[in-house]
Amino acid sequence: MSFDSLGLQADLLRAVATQRYARPTPIQLQAIPEILAGHDLLAGAQTGTGKTAAFVLPLLQRLSEKGHPQRHPRALILTPTRELAAQVGERVHAYGLHLPLRSAIVFGGVGMQPQVNQLQRGVDVLIATPGRLLDHAGRRTVDLSRVEILVLDEADRMLDMGFIHDIRRIIQLLPERRQNLLFSATYSDDIRRLADGLLKRPKLIEVARRNTAAETVVQAAHPVDKARKRDLLAHLFRREGWHQVLVFTRTKAGANRLVEHLGREGITAAAIHGNKSQSARTRALDDFKRGSVRALVATDIAARGLDIVDLPQVVNFELPNVAEDYVHRIGRTGRAGAGGKALSLVSHDERGLLQGIQRLLRREIALDPVVGFEPSLVPPESEPDRSLGGRRDSRGPSRPARKPAAAAASPAGKRPWRGGDRRGRGATP
Fold first, then answer.
1. Domain-embedded: residue 426
2. Looking at per-residue confidence, does 158 or 239 come out higher?
3. Would the pTM of this model clear 0.85, i.e. be above it?
4. Residues 85 and 221 in one domain
């Protein structure tokens, strides 16, 4: 089936042809007709399956059919991060290239006045992060009383980031009668509760089992001691000849340290996280896309919202504390049906996190040690594991454990780590 069969007008089809989209993805096939018909929508699909086009294309058509551009926003798209807002804004511009509609993007980390100037010139489609939008509303530089269509993009991520109260405040500024669209990579009970209070007789679309990774992404993991992770990563860059790799860490400081280490190894790298200015984040992403930087090291702020064409490799330098974030991280590769690879470096203290990810995905991720970087034996069982909620002895270093009877029969008196955790608990931040 082609885009021609979805009821899109000629100007939008011209823009789609320019993007060289061969045919609609499943989420686009199902969502576009429902949105054109004016229905509220609760839609879920794996990340990288074309959700943005699924709501932007029909949204633009509905606005263009209702008259000429207006001064105040008629469509509002809320996103959790600056990167995702910028990405959606780019798509709105690209798809609406032949339409007389104006769009604007507002997010934090940059000056307010350029955004105010753009809003004063008139906007049909406003793409925004919740906090900065409320700043504009508080200064009366934006009027949301004429919004006809509200889109919550990556709604689950917005809830994870604590934006629920901001979202509710924004909803109070909107007119009662409007079309509401919730798009989310995963469904959760919180998302369903939000949908119940927001959507009116919505159409439900779910094109893949919730919380699943794209089948086109090959997943693997290397067990390794935490202290040797940086050296292993540099070794893999050399061995595999990687030229474009998105690497995820848990913390901003960890991302900075990893960039410095890779630089000393002769591997160009840049970091992108919340402590970076927006201009620095944009520059790092642009350098990565151009190929002048081989490794882009990011925290989970970039797990959604980064759209890098044909990104071949994602590496989880550290596993995420929330299993669902693993799905979003590796969803940066294997997008729109393309192939990709996702590799995780798993240390002893992350074994519970790995098991949680495997439960979520309902599949096992093979553990394949790298020669020369095999993990050491399991720490004594009586030694508290702080990452799993254990308690460190305040009197000094943890004392060695008494050898279990089964282990005493081996020469080393210890068992090799094989991954997994009988306790099934994840690590704490």
1. no
2. 239
3. no
4. no
Report the candidate in 66, 39, 72, 68 with the shortest Cα–Cα distance to residue 55. 39
pLDDT in tens, 219-232: 999 999 999 999 99
C-alpha–C-alpha distance, residues 425 and 429, integer Å: 13
Q: How large is the C-alpha radius of gyration of the chain?
A: 24
| Kind and range of the H or E run holding 326 | helix 323-330
Q: Would you tell me how many other CB atoms lie within 10 Å of the CB of residue 402?
A: 11
| pLDDT for res 44 | 81
Average pLDDT over every residue of 321-348: 83
Alpha-carbon distances of 84 from 153, 154, 207, 294, 303, rounded to whole Å: 9, 9, 22, 22, 10
Residue 41 inside a domain? The answer is: yes
| Helical H segments across 199-277, by residue range | 229-240, 252-264
Q: Which of 380, 341, 51 is nearest to 221 (CA)?
A: 341
Strand partners, 44: 184, 206
At how many degrees (to 10) do helices 130-138 and 164-172 cross?
Answer: 40
Q: Give the CATH number, domain containing residue 235.
A: 3.40.50.300
